[in-house]
Amino acid sequence: GAVLLARRITGPLKKLVEGTVKISKEDFSQKIDITSQDEIGNLAQSFNDMSRKLLLARERMEVASNKLIQAEKLTSIGRISAGIAHEIRNALTSVKLNIQKLVQSDRLDETEKEHLSISQEGIGQMEKFVKELLDFTRVSELNLARFSLEQILDESIKTLADTLELKKVVLEKNYKEGLPQVLVDADKLKQVFLNILRNAFDAVEEKGEINISLSLLKEQEGSKIRVFISDNGCGIPEENRETIFEPFYTTKASGIGLGLPIARKIIEQHRGTIRVKENAAQGTSFEILIPTEEER
């Protein structure tokens, strides 16, 4: 009896874990075939509802992206995405609550609860997906204060220290001394730097190189701090150098292609610019220009 009960629980749990792992990799066609009238059945129903909404969300966004001209696209996609993101968030909440009920119940042993923890990690990936959608659609005020870009860059690098160590990436910094502080939203700029650095880490091989430089650029319209981040990874084809800033464009197996559009949006809020520069060697180079405080 106990063995039969364990099989009745473990089998459906494996289906749920496999489905969650696949959907966290953006295979939204997953459907869990569990019809039991218990906590596991409720979780499966919540899961199927969520995967259906995710699939519908992606289809609706692709249609919007393909049909609308560029001037209308950002506004329309933003409006659609905001509504979809809230729908998905509600479905995610239902799945999380059902998983928590199962974890807290006496029906599962520790191994089965560990299986469910894998599902919880997958849910975390989907929550990141929703957060990116909402970040892209929100027009939030900047929380401005004086900061040195050296400090924000160093904090970003520190956040990724484990990734650096794991891949044995060589990171070189070249910061010009005496650069002025700038009036910026430090958290938002850190989000930009983290996105570019993570892309660089993904692009380089083990023991690859990433270079970061900071300098002062004096132009006719005023002084700017120049942030230059380059890597010796696989690079971006010339024809894609502008496309990468468009919403939902991605070459990665996972990800929804909003990291760089969000980065551009943040930089433009600071009255700055971000672009991909031609790299003499292989790899990718990003140039970010932020106006100095006296020019803002």
Q: Can you walk me through this structure?
A:
27% of the residues are buried. This protein has 296 residues and is an alpha+beta fold. Helix 3 runs antiparallel to helix 4 (110-137) and helix 5 (149-159) packs across helix 7 (186-203). The protein folds into 2 domains: 2-137, no CATH class; 145-295, Heat Shock Protein 90. It is 55% helix and 15% strand. The strands form 2 sheets. It has a 5-stranded mixed beta sheet with strand order 2-4-5-7-6.
Give a concise summary.
With 296 residues, the chain is an alpha+beta fold.
Number of helices: 8
If you average the pLDDT, what whole number results?
A: 76
| Computed CA radius of gyration, to the nearest angstrom | 23 Å
Count of individual domains: 2
Could you name the CATH homologous superfamily of the largest domain?
Answer: Histidine kinase-like ATPase, C-terminal domain
Q: State the CATH architecture of the largest domain.
A: 2-Layer Sandwich
What is the CATH topology classification name of the largest domain?
Heat Shock Protein 90
The parts where pLDDT drops under 50 for at least 5 residues are: 1-7
Major beta-sheet overview: 5 strands, mixed
Sheet with the most strands: spatial strand order: 2-4-5-7-6
CATH class of the largest domain: Alpha Beta
State the helicity in percent bands: 40-55%
| Count of beta strands | 7
> From N to C, what is the helix and strand string?
HHHHEHHEEHEEHEE
Name the shape in a single word. elongated
Distance between the termini: 74 Å
Overall structural class, as computed from helix and strand content, comes to alpha+beta
Q: Strand content of the residues, in percent?
A: 15-25%
